[in-house]
Amino acid sequence: MKNKYSIFALIKNAFTYHENWQRAWRDPLPKKEYDVVIVGGGGHGLATAYYLAKKHGMKNIAVVEKGWIGGGNTGRNTTIIRSNYLWDASAGLYDHALKIWEGLSQELNYNVMFSQRGVMNLAHNLQDVRDLKRRTHANRLNGIDSVWLNTEEVKKFCPIINTSPNIRYPVLGGTLQKRAGTARHDAVAWGYARGADAMGVDIIQNCEVKNIKRNGDSIEGIETTKGFIKAKKIGVVAAGHSSVIANMVDLKLPLESKPLQALVSEPVKPIIDTVVMSNAVHAYISQSDKGELVIGAGTDAYVSYTQRGSHDVVEGTLKAILELYPIFSRMKMLRQWGGIVDICPDASPIISKTHIKGLYFNCGWGTGGFKATPGSGDLFAHTIANDEPHKLNADFNINRFVSGDLVDEHGAAAVAH
Amino acid sequence: MFLINCPYCGERDQSEFSAGGEAHIVRPKQPTELSDDQWAEFLFMRKNIKGVQFERWNHAHGCRKWFNMIRDTSNDKIQAVYKMGEKPPIK
Fold first, then answer.
1. Could you tell me if the ipTM is greater than 0.85?
2. Domains along chain B?
């Protein structure tokens, strides 16, 4: 049984200089067989395992991770959480996640530092204004809080923004979702890992999947660097490497994997207490609790699995940041990194069964999967346990690329994720 | 970020080029006879290889010509560049 984290546990452990805290999760060797194996120990995969154990009563579950948990895109994103999506299907999916976020720290007994500091999306031209106003109305019809702010209101909400009409991309207004915000990305992975482990889920790190063994139209198990593991069901949540897994069973997915970059500055005193996104110039910014500015850039425009990204992409983003926030002109950037994101043609995810029995895919989150972590895990667990989708992820099946029933968030809402 | 040897202009920075996705995906000759599955395959489904991939590139900020390239997507090393219509120099 896991010790509960509380103020009393903190005081008690202070007497032993915090040297006797229990391990947050075990480090087991793989068993011969599992009912469900989740491939990928990021936030989404760990959440899937957690909800399979918690809500669907499954006991014999493993999560296999080629590196360490949360070392992939879970630890590489800019931690933005919001649900102000245009289409009904997306609004349902992302707001489901946001509602779970609101109680997640209590549920996991792990502080994920969820902070509803608001997310503001800026409009820089008349088409942006029309699109964002339309999105505000669509959000409200779906019960998602969203308001339109004019230029003065934007300035009032975030005073360091340059609202001069004479800049290259002037701020003509923006939308604000107050329930949106940020969370501590590592804590999400660790919290779910601890919660899943407490219910008996085996989290197996440094265990890379080399092949998926198939028997006709069903799966038998996975070949890994730690040997063969038999599995009744396999849920693949491998983000940028989803196609690599899919190619093992000759399953083609509509994905392209690209490096997405982010960077942080040196830490400074509190200067920006919200998240500001700007889709037209592709720059978004917030400040971490440590004081670093967290800046998101765009993807490289070609397929690559190198977790680096190009310099010109960062340069473009920082130019936009400097024009919008002249106060940052002498800030020094501390670190830059890239993560490999798998992008669908319609920029919406896939949470779906496949034509191979017992094989499920949760992928295509592209540049915006972090915000959906709890909802994605919950719905994917439902899909695996029942062998059919929940009504909230029914629209996000693989077959939509055959039927043409796409959830076209990319073009329709012009959302940066 | 890398240099690309355009078959028409020579070596230039990658930022001058735009990627056109996987190469040698043949446009269907009889579009009206295609099933939905075949359309999906042509339009959307990609191998998205980690490793040696055949792809199309366009020298967008240069000669604006299309060409083919063989690149290892795991380290961005370019193995060959060849013109449209030519057979790939490596299998």
1. yes
2. 3-26+33-83 (3.30.2270.10)
